[in-house]
Design goal:
The structure is a homodimer. Chain A is globular, with a radius of gyration of 21 Å. Chain A is an alpha/beta fold. The first copy, chain A, folds into two domains: about 170 residues, Aspartate Aminotransferase, domain 1 (Alpha-Beta Complex); about 260 residues, Aspartate Aminotransferase, domain 2. The mean pLDDT of chain A is about 95. Chain A is built from twelve helices and 15 strands.
Chain lengths: ~425, ~425
Amino acid sequence: MKPILDLNAFDVAATANLDARLASSVRRRSGLFGAASVLFYDHPLEFVRAEGCWLYDAAGNAHLDAYNNVPCVGHCHPRIVEAAARQLAAINVNTRYLHPAILDYAERLLATLPPALGNVAFTCTGSESNDLALRLAAQFTGGAGIIVTESAYHGNTAAVTAISPASFKRGGPPAHVRVIDAPRADSPDGSAVAAALASQVTAAIDDLGRAGIRCGALIVDTIFSSDGVYADPPGFLRAAVEAVHRAGGLFIADEVQAGFGRTGSTFWGFARHGVVPDIVTMGKPMGNGHPMGAVVTRPEILEAFCATVGYFNTFAGTPAAAAAGLSVLDVIEQEGLMANTHAVGGHLLAGLRELGLRHPVIREVRGAGLYIGVELTPRSDALATRVINGLRARRVLIGAAGRDGNVLKIRPPLCFSAVHADTLIAALDATLSALAP
Amino acid sequence: MKPILDLNAFDVAATANLDARLASSVRRRSGLFGAASVLFYDHPLEFVRAEGCWLYDAAGNAHLDAYNNVPCVGHCHPRIVEAAARQLAAINVNTRYLHPAILDYAERLLATLPPALGNVAFTCTGSESNDLALRLAAQFTGGAGIIVTESAYHGNTAAVTAISPASFKRGGPPAHVRVIDAPRADSPDGSAVAAALASQVTAAIDDLGRAGIRCGALIVDTIFSSDGVYADPPGFLRAAVEAVHRAGGLFIADEVQAGFGRTGSTFWGFARHGVVPDIVTMGKPMGNGHPMGAVVTRPEILEAFCATVGYFNTFAGTPAAAAAGLSVLDVIEQEGLMANTHAVGGHLLAGLRELGLRHPVIREVRGAGLYIGVELTPRSDALATRVINGLRARRVLIGAAGRDGNVLKIRPPLCFSAVHADTLIAALDATLSALAP
């Protein structure tokens, strides 16, 4: 397996290939960040300005951003910047004081979710959200066992790294974790996906049981992004969730990737599958860049946990976070970004599939809304890395995903237009055509 | 022991005692946040505006903030608000792209630290910082054992909660954690503190060894805030740190509380003790409210960890975080806040000690700079809670700390003036005088 931090990563040994200014910047950074310095692309990028779906370098070149989902309503959206700045100037205290903005936001957020999920706990990152979710599940069920997919990535804390197979450069998840296959559609119409997934989940529950470990939760990123993007057929999660519930475990929907309208037809990724999670976790797009996350769950699940240690997070749920979060919801609604995501995502998917007819290295194009994976063949990251860097040279930015790193990951801001989509398709066409045979 | 979330906490069962508007707001909040809703004071506070050391309620009443260390250079400081807002409007991407601001900030930050600590990894919260620090220590030393003080609080992730005795409402830390006494100065001149602390650390190392667990690290908040604030005599940490090093363990200085000039005479709390940590963790005051944290360590420690899983944090080290962090360092320097902290802290300490001569419920006044603990007698939180709420009624805000919750925690923004200090002292005098005998 290709560790997630190695996908599309700049090789610091190649610094000598860069021009003097860039090389000096990379060296300065390596000196300060040490072994934890991770950069994208074979020629790292430095941007000075951003707007909508565009990132601008110091020379004024515009790069089309088809990768970043944090600025979900567009880079530096003036409404979000203004709302956060206004709040930062007025007051920004922690949630042990009352403030109406976070209550307004909590109500707006919960209104987008199934009514059973009545409580929200705010965090600062998706990692903190998943870390808390794991403890809620363990406390409520008494089960320590966790089931994850083969290349799952759920964040960077100790507990969450343990359930993220994609994070391991050496070794793998510890004994309480069971790893199942990504939900591949091996049958032509995808009808076997649901059954295969449910049978893998059942086998994992049984295997945990044999080891004396009760199943606490199945957790999935509902668009399976790091697994390589698996969206179809909608509903394939249902039988797996039922199997976990039958075993007394919870279903945690990690919506860090698929949430906030990203998949176009539903506001949450789990909703495409017609399931109701026990816990929903959120992060990246929530504040369009303001560091914020959340865990939404049933009151009794939170209550069981709060009887043991409780939860408070200093930077979470502040008036500034509420202002950013509220304005993101406003913009998604008022700028019709879900409809845009649905329409442009469909256009992009169709265009990429059409490209697949002419370029045999494209094995499959998958996705929903503006979360699209283009699986290349053969199953190795070498070709994907060339394609991603070819696109980067053409000033179109995407990333990589999948167990073998052979899936192009396309995940632009939700204000991506049909013109942007056509630019991406043309650049990919040119890149693939330029590949040496 | 009194769990930290219960200290100075509003009892939701007392909602009926509040006026209708406040009661309705508390109920609305309880409905949304459920069991995780934690508020301060017997009458929760709602503020609409803040500036410097003042928090204003909707009626325009000013409350003197002698508690919040997140807005370290003052609430809503215009320089920090402006710097963050300007950067949010220009560009705010993750660190897999190059940006000079975070390198400038990393250099400025590392320049305040011992030269051996050459690398920094940015996070979003102090909890994330300590979570990473624990893993760095475990990987580098091969030791899983962690030594903490009796009422330590290091954050809210699963791994960090496990080493935070103050967090447990039921049970306590797991088998790899050893809990030692707070560094109480039981000898009249405090000279026995260092020896007692070192001997406790050595005993903990031995006890871990008998359980087959190697010592990975000693971690302390260098002002021992949740333990009840222990500052003197400077240097008392040295022998304990040497004992841990002899055992092959690391010393992690948690500077979330004591860092960024808080203790007045040195920029970092560990520096008062003349020790060089292996890992330094940061959070709360770093961005004056922007959610940011950091782990600073020796390059070889980070390298060992990055060979196993590595570290990347989407919201950490962004240009906006760098802008906030840089402007905090600028303001501390240009407004002379360390000198102010030293002077006003000394004035406040002297005034509180003078008060202790007249009020026998004051057992001891401890602290450094603007981190002060006033220990009340008897050893129970009942009196401290009355005093804190008495001060709150007089519009002066402080908190509680210590194993038994009997220590008044005074920790204002660093721009606290002598006039503010006198206001606090007068209000405490009046509050103590008004206590029924």
